[in-house]
Structures are given as C-alpha cells and as structure tokens.
Design a protein that fits this description.
This protein has about 280 residues and is an alpha+beta fold. It has three domains: about 100 residues, Nucleoside Triphosphate Pyrophosphohydrolase (Alpha-Beta Complex), CATH 3.90.79; about 30 residues, no CATH class; about 120 residues, Nucleoside Triphosphate Pyrophosphohydrolase (Alpha-Beta Complex), CATH 3.90.79. About 15% of the residues lie in helices and about 30% in strands. The chain contains three helices and 17 strands. Strands 12, 13, 14, 15, 16 and 17 form a six-stranded mixed sheet that branches. A four-stranded mixed sheet has the order 1-6-7-2, covered by helices on one side. Strand 6 and strand 7 form a beta hairpin. The longest helix is centred in the middle third of the chain and has 18 residues. It is globular. The protein starts with 9 loop residues before the first strand and ends in a 7-residue tail after the last helix. About 30% of the residues are buried. Bound molecules: zinc ion (ZN). The site of zinc ion has 8 residues, from loops.
C-alpha cells in the first residue's frame, strides 16, 4: 500500500526548517499539483527548480523534505511543467514521491480551504507551534481534516461482491463497496449501511482487515471483510453505482497491491484456496 515504505520513514510531526536545493517544491493551483514531465512519467519539482520563492515546511521522508509554495505567483512556467489532478501522484515511478507528494497535497489542500476563519471571517494564520490554522481575531483553531472511509470485501462462498461507482474514472476494472463514515455511526455500522445502500444485501461477520491513509480525498480508509447474510440478490443504488455483481474467485484478475487497500482486499480473497474437504 502507498504508506508502506519501510525501511524509509515518513516524518509528519509539525516543525519549521529552511529548505535545501534538493528538497521538494509543492505548488497547488485550482486543486491541481505542479509536476515535472519526464520521458515516461512525472516527478515532483525540487526547490532548486524554483529558487528564492517563499515556502514553508510540510513533511519529510527520511532526510528529504516537502515545502509548500507561499507565493501567489501565477505567471506561466517555462519548461516541462504541468498542473495535474492529484490522482496522478499515485502513479509516480518513485514510491517515496507517491507518499510524500500525496501527503503534502493533503496538507496543502487543507491550508487552501482555511484561508479565512469559518467563525468570524478574519484571515487565518498558520500556527507557529503546531499543525493548525489559527484565527488571530477569535482564536478559532482548525486542524487538518481527515475523513474516515470504510471499504469492504463481501464474501459469498467463492464469490466476491465487486462494484464500480458511476463516477469512477477507471472503467476497465471492478472495485469494492466503500463510502464515507456518516456522523454518529461506528466504522462497522458504516460498513453494514454502505453495503445495504449500494448493493441491497445483509452481511455478517464484519472483520477489521487494516487501514491506510488516502490523501487524495483527505481520508483515512478502514478495510473490512464480511460474509453475505441471507439472500444474495443484489439491488443496486442506481444514483451512485454503475455495476455491482458477484465475481467468481477464478474470474478475478490480479490487482497491483502497491497503492490501495482495495487491491489488497481483492488479492486477499483471490489468493485464498478453498479449505480441503
Ligand atoms: Zn475568527
């Protein structure tokens, strides 16, 4: 998964430091991130590519830090630079850049949404002691938003419930049922509700599988497995789901587990052998 970078280490604690030329430079405009185009992919620009611009420290992986551009500069940039959607970060060739870039984007996105106080409207300032935006007028303090999401692999003997949302950009594959946790419910309750809403079935034996950060939607994803309870007839939520279907284990293609817990849950099911009779 994207956060599994051992023996490397993500340093996400708040601190202040000055950039070095080989630290990363993060610039966000209109919810897109500036990347440098290479022959076959993208890479994150370095401070040395944009020297002398004001910026502040976000995070580091090992000794390599990520700095967010503080300039309001919107002049065209010469060279092979491009503003791209944040999902491109998942595909970067360097797995440390995948994590560092996406976590940096998450923080940058949160800062961009909190320029002004939601309570009194005054301009917010970055705290000097913790990762927070603070209103100097009414002292309202806002911390980074992390929205919990659940995802579930529903097993039905040797079949897996797979689905695809209407707005999913990848139409070539199927995925799992997932959704944001609503106010007032537990992770397990969210799992039951999402499966009932999107596929119209009851489930049982909901078991925690693992979790991962998902900075692309400001989220933390909790993964679960579950079993069908009762009737397997699917009733699809047509406003959200394009397709939901039971897929035989042997018909599931291999999924790349280097980025998402969704793929890990699918591979976990696909690789399970039937218990010997
Ligand atoms: Zn305020």
């Amino acid at each position: 998964m994207i956060h599994e970078i051992a023996p490397h280490k993500l340093h996400n604690a708040f601190r202040t430091q000055d950039p070095t030329p080989y630290d990363y430079f993060i610039r966000i405009r209109d919810n897109k991130i500036l990347l440098k185009k290479t022959a076959s992919n993208y890479t994150i620009p370095r401070i040395k590519d944009f020297p002398d611009l004001p910026c502040h420290y976000l995070i580091a992986i090992d000794g390599c830090a990520y700095f967010l551009d503080d300039s309001e500069d919107n002049a065209p940039i010469s060279g092979n630079y491009e503003f791209v959607p944040n999902r491109i970060l998942r595909t970067l060739g360097d797995r440390l850049e995948r994590l560092g870039g996406s976590v940096a984007f998450h923080i940058a996105h949160w800062e961009s949404l909190n320029k002004f106080c939601g309570h009194c409207g005054h301009a917010m300032e970055r705290s000097k002691t913790e990762r927070a935006m603070v209103c100097p007028h009414c002292h309202n303090t806002v911390y980074p938003r992390i929205s919990p999401v659940v995802i579930v692999a529903v097993h039905n003997a040797d079949k897996l419930l797979m689905a695809r949302n209407l707005d999913h950009p990848d139409k070539s594959r199927l995925f799992l049922i997932s959704g944001f946790v609503e106010i007032g419910e537990s992770l397990e309750q969210a799992v039951h509700r999402e499966v009932m809403e999107e596929a119209g079935i009851n489930i049982k034996n909901v078991k925690y599988f693992g979790s991962q950060p998902w900075p692309f939607s400001d989220s933390l994803i909790a993964g679960f497995t579950a079993e069908l309870d009762g009737d397997e007839t699917l009733k699809i939520q047509e406003s959200e789901i394009e397709i939901a279907t039971w897929v035989q284990r042997e018909d599931i293609p291999e999924y790349d587990t280097s980025v998402s817990i969704s793929s890990c849950l699918i591979e976990d099911f696909r690789n399970k052998r039937k218990d010997p009779a």
